[in-house]
Amino acid sequence: MRSVAALILLMTMLVTANAQIVFSEDTTNAKAEVAQESNLPDSAKRQSTDVVYRHDGTMMYVDVKKIHLNDLYYSLPGQTKVTKMDQRYVHKIEYKSGKIEVLNEKPSNVRETNDYRKVKITQSNIDVDGLIEVAKLDARAEGSERGYSTLESLERSATIMLRKKAASVNADIVLITDKKVNIAFGEIPSIVLYGTAYSYR
Prior knowledge:
Layout: H1 2-38, H2 42-46, E1 50-54, E2 59-68, E3 71-75, E4 83-86, E5 90-94, E6 100-102, E7 120-122, E8 132-142, H3 151-168, E9 173-182, E10 190-199
C-alpha cells in the first residue's frame, strides 16, 4: 500500500511540474511575440495597413475605404468607425497591396468650410464672367409647422447653406440661377436656391 501511495504521489508531482513548465513556457513565448511586434520597423507595419501621405509631410497608417468627390473615407486599424477627410490634402496613397495612387501632385489651396462667410453671393452674370466654374449647387430651407418662419428668414438660411457648400468645394462666389418658393396653404413653407459656384483661379 505504501508503494502504491508513493507512486500516486510521485505521478501527481510530475503532472503538476509538467503543467507549471508548460504554463511558464507559454508565457515566455507570448512576451517574446509582443516584444517582436513592438520592435517591428515601419516598413513591416505598413504592410498591414494602407499609408496616406499628406502634403504637410505626415503619414497616416489607416484602412482606406473609398474616395468620393473631395472626400477620402478611412478607418483606423482594428476599428469599424469610418472617418472622412478632404482628399485634396493628400499627396498619395500606398495601399497594402503594393499599389500606389497619386491623388494630388501639388498641394491644393483648400478653403475650410468655416470660411463660408468669405464666399460671395451674386445674381449678376457680370460678376462671374471669366471665372472658373466649380460646381452646380442647391440648398433647401424649410419652415416649421408653427409658422414662425418668414420667406426672408428661409432665404437667409438657404443662402448660408449654399455658401457653406460652395466653401466645401473651394469656390469663391456663387451665382444664383433659380429660386423656388413653396407657400401653399396647409403645407410647410420652403425655399430652394439653385446656383453655380465659381473660383477666381
